[in-house]
Design brief:
The structure is a homodimer. By secondary structure, chain A is α/β, with parallel strands linked by helices. Chain A has helices at 4-11, 15-22, 30-43, 49-56, 77-92, 112-119, 134-140, 163-176, 195-210, 228-239, 253-265, 299-315; strands at 61-66, 96-99, 123-127, 146-149, 157-161, 182-184, 186-188, 222-224, 247-249, 275-277, 294-296, 324-327, 330-332. In chain A, strands 2-1-3-4-5-12 form a six-stranded parallel sheet, covered by helices on one side. In chain A, strands 6-9-10 form a three-stranded parallel sheet, with helices on one face. In chain A, strands 7-8 form a two-stranded parallel ribbon. In chain A, helix 1 packs across helix 2 (15-22), helix 1 (4-11) packs across helix 3 (30-43) and helix 8 packs parallel to helix 9. The relative contact order of chain A is 0.12. Chains A and B meet through helix 4, helix 5, strand 2, helix 6 and helix 11 of A and helix 4, helix 5, strand 2, helix 6 and helix 11 of B. Chain B binds a DNA duplex through residues 1, 3-5, 13-17, 19-20, 23, 25, 27-29, 32, 47-48, 50-57.
DNA sequence: AAAATCTACTAAATCGTTTTCGTAGTTTCA
DNA sequence: TGAAACTACGAAAACGATTTAGTAGATTTT
């Protein structure tokens, strides 16, 4: 590898001068800068990230913690869209993205925090994890700049999808279409309730209460997120009630697919007999017939705001205010909710 | 940060001894090792990746290039499953995963190769890119260990999903169900044909030829991958032929959703009137009704084999043979192909 | 013309590791 | 008992960059 020393020899100037020339310091003449840069190009010089990091304590590398119970969040279509957008914004700003993990055998079973310190990440973004994990807590309490997505920690910047408004818009829309018997098969995590779930659920109750609609308890069962089979079962139960709902909300579009199957299995039509509402706005939701009524979360915005805010924090660790950014989604009215009278 | 020097002071031994003790060298006594490790733990020591990399020329970091036209491959459900599996295997072996990118403004608009050298990746995995990109070519020709996924380069190890066998199994199955008028709306990339497309197409022709089935040219239109709208249009055209097919293959499950919509729009039933065959085996394919007949690509295996082979190459850059690994998929017979007589 | 100020550069320390080469001190062997 | 062989450790160089403090020489100021 060609290093500063090689350039310095080829140019007949000191290593210090080469470094400064390449970094455009003010105490180097224009001619020298030009010359050094030409020679650097000619020799095919590329800086060495490790050496730079060692010296400057900056890696220009951001750690990403996207882990759900089963897999990494990579296969989760909401989170991978968020990550995709995050990555784009980060890279535009000169940062690379590396996944944080734990339990590395080579490294003494490092925790998330140890791993982050080991790699020297300038900042960290956390999403889609079990937020009650003590290792996550350790990260949150560390010195490293952190933003979280869809979860609010004390004293940490958070980017949140606007679940309160999302459910509110959906519920209001459904109400306006004439529905009064509205069920909400809502999501649940394996552990305790997440803030996402809580926000949505309370918004659901609040919205309908404000509209004067009463929701019986059996209209609000819980199933795991993205579990089509559980959603199927829960739907069957709802349809079997003496007073079945005319419209069913699902925790996510994925689960809604399970519900759709259940409804059709019962020989009922969508939306004429039962209306269906999803959440997320995954690509396929718009590709099926009827087009799914759902809340399209603004993954683009969430990801890029998260990256920008994190970079702000990195560049100004003490001065930047901790904030909570709420990103609104866009309702997709679709075709799966009927107008009834 | 606590460094070897701190431990060395606390233990009353030299830095060299500390390093060797932690790395379990043989010329350090058991007692010293024990003592050093205890003190290291007590002080909360974590190695510094940058310093290690600088000294050893090993980063334990693998570069990932997953880019398609629009986005990173992150939002592509086949590739993100592959990546997820790759990541898991790599991490189990002590490697981290960082995305390769190019055009970083901070770094003089680095190419992929420059970026890889800058970060000192021990190895690189390439998938889902425009393989005709000169920058990709530069990577392939570099000194860095590389494996590619679903594309074969001369002199580089490649992991390929078995598209020949995949299409063969599907076509044979459909034939056995009695179909003779079989169309294949096949995928096409924006640039030239990829090896994936070529393999599938030639396997389709070969299989049916061997079975004595004749395929008219108008049965084999091309549409972009994952484009539901284009698949919709192509399907409509097929249905409008004087002799419409009884079964239609799609480039992927996604596109198949477009086809399903078209068929239903025409008032036809699936599979009674028209049978549908996808490719990929995305999660939702099993969640719709009728369950989609498709080829489930073994993303788990592809990802983990890619990681293992890459790590072999890293550990033995010269000795390891370049190979081409073909990974078979599993047919999902589903419910979208009818038995006809 | 001496003093002060600039300009453009360099030497050297440093970041945190790893590794080579020595070397005291102990044990083994002839 | 002296030579050979081990054992357990340390000093120092090196990896490739950045940065501080210093300094010749030219230029400006008084």
């Amino acid at each position: 590898m060609v290093s500063l020393k090689d350039i310095s020899k080829a140019c007949g100037v000191s290593v210090a001068t080469v470094s400064k020339a390449l970094n455009d310091h003010s105490d180097i003449s224009q001619e020298t800068k030009k010359h050094v840069r030409e020679v650097a190009d000619k020799l095919g010089y590329r800086p060495n990230a490790a050496a730079q990091a060692l010296k400057t304590n900056r890696t220009n590398n951001i750690g990403v913690l996207f882990v759900d119970e089963a897999n990494s969040g990579l296969t989760h279509d909401y989170f991978n869209h968020v990550l995709d957008s995050f990555k784009r914004t980060a890279e535009e700003n000169g940062y690379d993205i590396t996944f944080i993990n734990s339990g590395n055998k080579r490294l003494n079973n490092m925790s998330y925090l140890s791993h982050a310190i080991y790699r020297g990440f300038d900042g960290i973004v956390i999403a889609c994890v079990d937020f009650s994990d003590p290792q996550v807590d350790e990260l949150i309490k560390s010195e490293i700049p952190v933003v979280t997505i869809d979860h609010l920690f004390y004293n940490r910047t958070a980017i949140m999808s606007d679940n309160v408004n999302g459910i509110n818009e959906l519920a209001t829309y459904v109400y306006e279409q004439g529905h009064r018997k509205i069920a909400y098969i809502h999501g649940k995590e394996s552990g305790m309730e997440s803030s996402v779930t809580k926000s949505r659920l309370s918004s659901f109750y609040k919205t309908l209460q404000d509209l004067g609609v009463d929701i019986p308890d059996e209209y609000v069962p819980a199933v795991p997120y993205r579990d089509t089979d559980a959603a199927y079962e829960a739907t069957i139960k709802l349809l079997d009630l003496k007073e079945p709902p005319t419209c069913i909300f699902y925790p996510d579009d994925f689960a809604a697919f399970g519900g759709i199957n259940a409804i059709r299995k019962r020989g009922l039509r969508i939306p004429e007999d039962v209306s269906v509402v999803g959440y997320d706005g995954i690509e396929l939701a718009r590709k099926i017939s009827p087009i799914l009524t759902t809340m399209v979360q603004d993954t683009e915005q969430i990801g890029s705001v998260a990256a920008s805010k994190l970079i702000d924090l990195i560049n100004n660790p003490k001065g930047t205010i901790v904030e909570q950014v709420v990103v609104k989604g866009n309702i997709e009215r679709g075709e799966s909710v009927a107008r009834i009278s």
